[in-house]
């Protein structure tokens, strides 16, 4: 993680959002929801319009819609937020709770070891598997030069 607190938070929020819901639930089992948790924004599911640009530089166009779920919690004085792809309300709850806990300097090392690192390794493994699958289907084109 980066030493800048804002960049580090952006990195762990990204990791929590990209985690598989079952992986996050398993990693967060040791961190039960406390009694003093306040749901500032219970999980809400909605749609986002994805926008794109042809070649990354052309005019914007509506690419399509994506379902997202957001959630905000307060644990003590810390406020955690999460936006996750899909309609997984439990994923959003756990990601927001983990974000709140990770803002506590005393709990961050333990959460980094038990939650973030396993999630990072799982995400890396999924990306490598997708790269291998794509590489296996790569087609090499070549031409035979005719002697004209």
From TrEMBL:
Q: Name one GO molecular function term.
A: lyase activity
Its GO biological process annotations read:
organic phosphonate metabolic process; organic phosphonate transport
Q: Which UniProt keywords apply?
A: Lyase
In its keyword annotation, does this UniProt entry include S-adenosyl-L-methionine? Answer: no
* Name of the protein described by the UniProt record: Phosphonate C-P lyase system protein PhnG
| Superkingdom per UniProt | Bacteria
Pfam family of the protein (one): PhnG
């Amino acid at each position: 993680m980066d030493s800048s607190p804002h960049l580090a938070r952006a990195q762990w929020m990204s990791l929590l959002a990209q985690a598989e819901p079952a992986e996050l639930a398993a990693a967060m089992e040791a961190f039960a929801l406390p009694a003093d948790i306040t749901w500032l924004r219970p999980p809400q599911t909605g749609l986002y319009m994805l926008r794109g640009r042809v070649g990354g530089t052309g005019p914007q166009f509506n690419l399509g819609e994506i379902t997202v779920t957001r959630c905000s919690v307060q644990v003590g004085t810390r406020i955690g937020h999460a936006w996750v792809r899909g309609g997984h309300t439990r994923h959003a709850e756990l990601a927001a709770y983990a974000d709140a806990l990770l803002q506590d300097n005393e709990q961050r090392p333990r959460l980094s070891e038990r939650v973030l690192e396993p999630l990072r390794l799982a995400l890396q493994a999924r990306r490598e598997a997708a790269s291998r699958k794509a590489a296996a289907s790569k087609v090499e084109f070549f031409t035979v030069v005719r002697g004209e």
